[in-house]
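FIELD: query
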Amino acid sequence: MMQRRMTKSQKVMLSAQDWAEAALDAIGRRGVEGVAVEPIARELGVTKGSFYWHFPNREALLVAALQRWEARETDEVLDRVQQETDPRARVKRLITEVNTSKKASRIYSALSSATKPAFVRDYVERVSKRRLDFIIDSYAALGLSADNARRWALMTFSVFLGSLQIRRDLPGEWPNADEPAFAEYVRFLMVSLMPSELDAANNTPAPDVPEWFARRGGHGF
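FIELD: result
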């Protein structure tokens, strides 16, 4: 009877969302295989009884974590970015948003490289497609043709994926979001990732290579 009362208390203290967030933390640190009930329960300071109030098994927890991740990385991010009325500002804000959080970058990298379970790929593809479609729409709103908008959006998206790879493999080479070098990097990208005809129309000068990039010998993507 005492065990039953303790479990009810745990149910009140920890919600299904708490477990989903803990699972996302585990993915960021250890990959998808790091989503295991016992280690997460230890990290949360509870017994497995708390888990079983909310989920029947590990797969259900992983699905809840992926659903939370998809909502955060699409609906929530894009809702904030869409507050910008200027398409160029939307692209800049999206680049800034998706590069700011190291945790979000680690989770995206872990999920995009996961091979099992197969349904993880479905979530990654949906998130990636919504981001790419948003960038395409932003370039199209600048006056580019559909084909050109797609080409420029693909290049911008490839830069984002390359930055994730560098942050994962060479974290010391990447500036933190609160460092001046990061803002310098974003400014550099915003000129580099705009078609030259748009730059000419806006009298935008050719970009200088950021100092932190040059000091590292020009290695980046």
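FIELD: remark
The radius of gyration is 21 Å.
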